[in-house]
Amino acid sequence: MINPSDYIRDGYLRIIVKPNKKQNYVLGYDYEKQALIIEIKVPAEQNKANKEVTKFLSKLMKKKVKIKSGHTSKVKVLSVY
Q1: SS3 of 23, please?
Q2: Quick check: 1 and 7 in contact, CB under 8 A?
Q3: How far apart are CA 4 and CA 46, in angstroms?
Q4: What is the pLDDT of residues 15-65, one digit of tens each?
Q5: Would you give the DSSP letter of residue 10?
């Protein structure tokens, strides 16, 4: 699996979220959008996918993760510290 820590730039990580998948997984990197592609098992409703993606990446990277922008978009920018 791809290590998301390798893609942090100036304390920020750009991601594309794909909800309703079988498992939480880092699928790959989109070079055109310069963002990691993250599959999340929960649906994108009532902020569930946002909570799951921050929890998943925090656990994976062992760092605090917070959504900086893109709360209602599939493309998000995360603060990592």
Answers
A1: coil
A2: no
A3: 25
A4: 999 999 999 999 999 999 999 999 999 999 999 999 999 999 999 999 999
A5: T
Tell me which residue has tokens 């902020």: 47
Place of tokens 């699928």: 27
Contact 37, 16 (CB under 8 A): yes
42's tokens: 């929960």
Q: Which fold has domain 4-80?
A: Conserved Hypothetical Protein Mth637; Chain: A; (3.30.1200)
Distance of CA 31 to the CA centre of its chain: 15
Q: Which H or E element spans position 78?
A: strand 75-80
- DSSP SS3 for 35: strand
pTM over 0.90: yes
Tell me the Ramachandran region of residue 11: left when phi exceeds 0, alpha when psi lies from -120 to 50, beta otherwise.
Answer: left
